[in-house]
Design brief:
446 residues; alpha/beta; TIM Barrel; eight-stranded parallel beta barrel; three-stranded mixed β-sheet; 15 strands
Amino acid sequence: MATDTGTTGTSAGALPRFPDGFLWGVSTSAHQIEGAADAREASVWDTFTAEPGRIKDGSTAAVACDHVHRHAEDVALLAGLGVDAYRFSVSWPRVNSPGGLDFYDRLVDDLCAAGVRPVPTLFHWDLPARLDWLRRDTAAEFAQYVSVVAERLGDRVTKWITLNEPAEHTLLGHALGVHAPGRRLLFDALPVAHHQLLAHGLAVQALRAAGATDIGIANSHGPTWPASGEAADVEAAGLYDMLLNRLFAEPLLLGRYPEGVGELMPGSPEDVEADLGVIAQPLDWYGINYYAPARVGAPQGTDAEFGGITLPAELPFAVRQIEGRPLTDFGWPVVPEGLTELLTGFRSRYGDRLPPVVITENGCSYDGLDDQDRIAYLDGHLRALHRAITAGVDVRGYFVWSLLDNWEWAEGYARRFGLVHVDHETRRRTPKASYAWFRDVLRAQR
């Protein structure tokens, strides 16, 4: 509830004031909410979900939240929430179909009319099924698609995101095979990382050519904690940190791969060096998706279940549970202070090479309309974020994942990340307690 000091009341006390001009928003992604309505080329996720056993509840995203038909209702929810911005994604397969950009034209117009800033992500895992990130030419095709979108929407869109979580798309989709396209290549998946990063660099060039001046990426990051002080655990944690954090940050921020990784990328050393010049295009801001730290130790010789994913025994590290922490319904540990640690660590590691930061995703899966656990989660993470700002990290915005309960990839409809409950039979929207809480937070911050 608002007070005369402009802070927000919670059971834990009032949230601190964030800087003037701080950008508040919520996020979604196309494949998770749109449905396959109207013309849409097949994506790798359509192919993947058609294979029996790939999705835990056997569902598909053929309808999802039916956002294509109900986007006006969703824009009204955004306006009622009072967010500054809406981070959505543009579906490459939809744009490739006749009239596919018309939907995004309408969506952007409606957002602007509602006073909500459109922030499109140009790739959020729904690759057209005819393409393959193992092929270098996919990066060039991505840049062509980005040019088409920018030409159509650039008169109203002023903030852009190139890729979402290339780390997860590489590791879950191509190394472990638990996401589309379902390949289990382990370390042979590294060319996928390189080609996505190259696609990012080419997309930045395409957006700059179209006049864009506010461009970032949404990379997922989290602190890596060694399971112990033993040398084997410290070494394993360092490798994990390289794969999940440094591999996707340092080419963008420093123009180089971590030591020893560049030799594993496709092409000659000269080719990789030239690509890094494209990858390291200057960014206006750096997006971070944060959910939890990882506790990592030496391999234990057996497959392990972690966060709904089976990690094979042949990996040179093992992800262990973080004990003594509450868990979300997804089984992820709730560690707000990990966000402070991550951000201050990035500032220390990258110094003035780190642009201003935007938290492009942060959220949790809990059931129920009276979702007090989600409120506590968001409250704790906003406090942790403010501590990072107080410590000197230049953070410019925060986006909650997610506006709506959606189709959660390999989990199907089993996980609920939304501020708004969606009945997956009727698609009826019902704001949760967390929606009202976040609305009041935004009112108080202003």
